[in-house]
Amino acid sequence: MKKVKITVMKMVCHHDLIEKYENPLLHACDMQLGQVFIADGWNKPNGFCDSAWQSISPFVMTLAYGGQDIYDGWMKNKRSAMISCNDGFRPVSFLLEVIDDEQ
Residue 11: which residues within 8 A CB-CB, separation 6 or more? Predict the structure, then answer.
């Protein structure tokens, strides 16, 4: 099984939706732009958001087990995927990339 590098690529905040629909939160997300995590199988990387992991883990596992070309030509690099977490108020986009084992 391959390791998968997860990079925080973009963070968006929909203030209009938050103001209209969300109960006030003191702290919603710990992700930092450019932050990198390494996934090793089903093990959620330390410090990674539980909710975001639920959104991206099926894609991480597909890539880790050798899957590629997710959604038939969607990505230029067939061994990668761009996936967002499921937070409709402040979605975070993650770039998933297979790490080649050096031998």
Answer: 29, 31, 33, 90, 91, 92, 93
Q: 11-64, pLDDT tens digit by residue?
A: 999 999 999 999 988 778 889 999 999 999 778 999 999 999 999 999 999 999
Its domain, for residue 33, covers 3-99
pTM of this structure: 0.91
**Alpha helices for 1-103 (secondary structure H):** 15-21, 50-64
**For residues 96 and 6, what is the distance between their CA atoms, to the nearest angstrom?**
5
Q: Name which of 97, 102, 103 is nearest 4 in CA terms.
A: 97
Neighbouring residues of 50: CB distance < 8 A, sequence distance ≥ 6: 44
